[in-house]
């Protein structure tokens, strides 16, 4: 399964079932999830700490570094999906609505005329 073939709903259902099977739901208040998200983002940041911009672009070429980055990125995504579940916020709707706002706030520059 990949991003190209897996829906957000499928991932959210799998993560929800994982948490339910372990009895974690009582601990998944929005506050606790946001705190956990901040912690996981910090762990993801640590994977890039002290790298130059160019080094950060090639960091995943090293298998061990790629695995560590993927693990932390997955932890961040898992918590975002859980937070979406526990707040009733539809991620697809939220992302699309924010993209509309961002397009207004940050309009794409007009393309210069093509040279003949």
For the record, what is the CATH homologous superfamily label of the domain at 28-89?
A: MazG-like
Q: Could you describe the largest sheet, including whether it forms a barrel?
A: none
List SSEs in N-to-C order. Answer: HHHHH
Looking at the overall shape, the CATH architecture of the domain at 28-89 is Orthogonal Bundle
- Which fold does the CATH topology of the domain at 28-89 refer to? Helix Hairpins
Helix content: 55-70%
Report the mean per-residue pLDDT as an integer.
Answer: 95
Description:
With 116 residues, this protein is an all-alpha fold. The protein has a domain at 28-89: Orthogonal Bundle (Helix Hairpins), CATH 1.10.287.1080. Helix content is 68%, strand content 0%. It has five helices and no strands. It has helices at 8-21, 30-48, 53-58, 63-87, 91-105.
Keywords:
single chain; 116 residues; mainly alpha; Helix Hairpins; 68% helix; 0% strand; extended
Topology:
Layout: H1 8-21, H2 30-48, H3 53-58, H4 63-87, H5 91-105
Helix pairs in contact: 1-4, 2-4
Short structural description:
The chain has helices at residues 8-21, 30-48, 53-58, 63-87, 91-105.
